[in-house]
Amino acid sequence: MTGTTETAAVKAAAGAATAPAPAPRPARLWRGATPWLFLLAPLALLIVFTYAPIANMVAYSFTDWDGVSPELRWTGTENYAELFTRPELFEVFWVSGYYLAASVIQIVAALYFATILSFNVRFRNFFKGVLFFPYLINGVAIGFVFLYFFQDGGTLDSVLSLLGVQTDRAWLGTPTSANTSLAAVSVWRYLGLNFVLFLGAIQSIPGELYEAAELDGANRWHQFRHIIAPGIKPVLSLTVILSISGSLSVFEIPYIMTGGATGTETFVIQTVKLAFQFNKTGLASAAAVVLLLIVLAVTWVQRRLAPDDKVDLV
Amino acid sequence: MTRRAVTRVLVYLSLIAATAVVLLPLAAVFLTSLKTEKEMAAGSGALALPGDPFNFDNYVTAFQDGRMLSAFANTAIILVVAIGGTVLIGSMTAYAIDRFRFRFRTSVLALFLVAALVPGVTTQVATFQIVNSFGMFDSLWAPIALYMGTDIVSIYIFLQFVRSIPVSLDESARIDGANAFTVYRKVIFPLLKPAIATVVIVKGITVYNDFYIPFLYMPSEDLGVISTSLFRFKGPFGAHWETISAGAILVIVPTLAVFLFLQRFIYNGFTRGATK
After folding, report:
1. Which string of b and e fits A173-188 if b means at least 16 CB within 10 Å?
2. By CB distance 3.0 to 4.6 Å, which of A155, A246, B211, B246 could disulfide with B227?
3. Which secondary-structure segment (H or E) carries A16?
């Protein structure tokens, strides 16, 4: 008897005092069920739309299913072998390289603008708004804005001719030029998010630190190096991982602008085409599993490298 | 001192250059949207001013022939239902996880945590089959269910907030005889207003801009949302850049209006959403 009251007391203490006194049996049962009643719908949705698809996807990846017919054949690791041996299927990963390079430029630029706008600058809110706004724009609208930008005689050519440069270059005409252009659009679109994240982190650094540093004769570069850089480390590592997984799963911009033509096909575009145009659900699932594993591996490595991640909750 | 001045000039120059890079592509499209077909055929440059700055004919064409009205209506329905659902689901999950100690609590939490790492684009191959088996394919329910069911970020935002609400409030309500549902409805939910505002804004903009899910799950033309309807401009208006531009501007203007009115909330919301 004393034993049960003791455990109940311990539980109540551990439970942040949500269960004050040992209640009679039916009430206790009811209390035990309460959290599950709240979690019923969320968990059902989570399992149906996140975990069941992952499980199914792994299962499909070992079959030759076409997504429609009731028949499917177990093929073992054939899909994976095909994925890694047919160079044209794996080549699309190189396209991610353009976006990865672009995200380096993006992070550096975002860091620069966040730093200068954290100091006293005239029209600060205007510049902040302008830099951030592209992130909020609809992807299809961005696609059209930049199709017009890069087209023959479009915005870019007009600007260049104003500057006295005459080009009749088809910006989206060759794989290198097209991928570079598309990666630039991606910088235009996503710079704002990185910038605002960095700015938020910098502004949460107490102002006295700068004053103290200034008294010690530190210049702006010293302030950046020794105060700002350490202060934004968690956000920076988060941004790096978001950029890597983002670069690997690029879809919208190239799909809307070129449809994956002229060598701009990315891994996700290829997977979508395999699954929904060529009805190769099995092969597409294998591709998706590979991408998922890479993204999870990248996340895991980042967690390992920066274990003091304060961003992590709970 | 002069060196300081030079740095200052360079800083402003870089800011002005960045502003130009952001605004020029948008300005060119805006100018084009005001031009007539004739002007375009005559080879009006991208940065040339339109002959009549109040020529809104292209907007009318885009709105009517581009089915933008039904697109805005469909988007609005999805927005309201999906956001309502997300707020309920997110707040209920956060309440249950933060205020109760029960068996498998950590496992449930881990389930939500790990799901946040899975990029949605990768699993659509298999999600498609599940959505299809529920008979939701090519209906508004597909995006609604997916937006509601796969939003982990909102759950994080609610979790942070529920944690900041003192437990003593729950307790005093309990002493007055309220049960868990009344506590949730009368105490927790009203106090979550700032979190709800954040989730509504972040989720609203994400849903409004999403292309992938409606494109994949709602191929019929009647079910076009603004992204997919605008995407369909590519076919019939092929080379009619004045109409396409008008369509793009039509889609951007609501975002701009929301941004100008709710700036502060939007910055906070996205910072909180991304850093979880």
Report:
1. eebebbbebbbbbbbb
2. B211
3. none
CB pairs under 8 A between A and B: 270
Q: For B147, what's the count of Cα atoms within 13 Å in the CB-facing half-sphere?
A: 34
Residues B22-55 have pLDDT tens digits of 999 999 999 999 988 888 877 777 778 888 888 8
Mean pLDDT estimate for chain B: 88
Q: Does B253 touch chain A (CB under 8 A)?
A: no
For the domain that residue A292 is a member of, what is the CATH number? Answer: 1.10.3720.10
Number of folded domains that form chain A: 1
Q: Nearest 10 degrees: CA dihedral of A149, A154, A160, A161?
A: -170
What is the per-residue pLDDT across A96-155, written as a single tens digit (0 to 9) for each?
999 999 999 999 999 999 999 988 888 999 999 999 999 999 999 999 999 999 988 788
Task: Give domain status of residue A277, yes or no.
Answer: yes
The answer to whether the Cβ–Cβ distance between B156 and A127 falls below 8 Å is no
Given this model, what pLDDT does residue A44 score? 92
Query: Quick one: pLDDT at residue A26?
Result: 65
Evaluate whether B227 touches B79 at the Cβ level (below 8 Å).
Answer: no
In chain A, the residue whose alpha carbon lies closest to the alpha carbon of B274 is A197
- Nearest 5°: the CA angle A182, A186, A192 is 155
Nearest CA in chain A to B102: A32
Asked if residues A62 and A77 have their Cβ atoms less than 8 Å apart, the reply is: yes
Give the span between the Cα atoms of A88 and A93, in whole angstroms: 10
Chain B CB contacts of A35 under 8 Å are: 96-97, 99-100, 102, 105
The CATH fold assigned to B70-275 is MetI-like fold (1.10.3720)
Q: Is residue A70 part of a domain?
A: no
**pLDDT category of residue B275 using cuts at 50, 70 and 90:** low
Residues in B touching A238 (Cβ below 8 Å): 274-275
Question: Residue A298 burial (CB < 10 Å; 0-12/13-18/19+)?
Answer: middle
- Judged against a pLDDT cut of 70, whether residue B8 lies above it is answered with yes
3-class state of residue A168 by DSSP: coil
Q: Give me the domain span that covers residue A271.
A: 87-305
pLDDT < 70: residue spans in chain A:
1-28, 306-314
Asked whether residue A240 is domain-assigned, the answer is yes
More confident residue, B43 or B240: B240
Whether A170 contacts chain B with CB within 8 A: no
Closest CA to A22 of A38, A34, A33, A10: A10
Interface pTM, i.e. ipTM: 0.90
Interface of B with A in 56-85 (CB under 8 A): none
Q: Flag whether A82 is in a domain.
A: no
Residues of A whose CB is below 8 A from B66 = none
Which residue in B has a C-alpha nearest to residue A287's C-alpha? B122
Phi and psi, residue B102, nearest 5°: -140, 165
pLDDT score at B272: 73
Does the pLDDT value for residue B14 go beyond 50?
Answer: yes
Rounded Cα distance between B199 and A15, Å, is 28
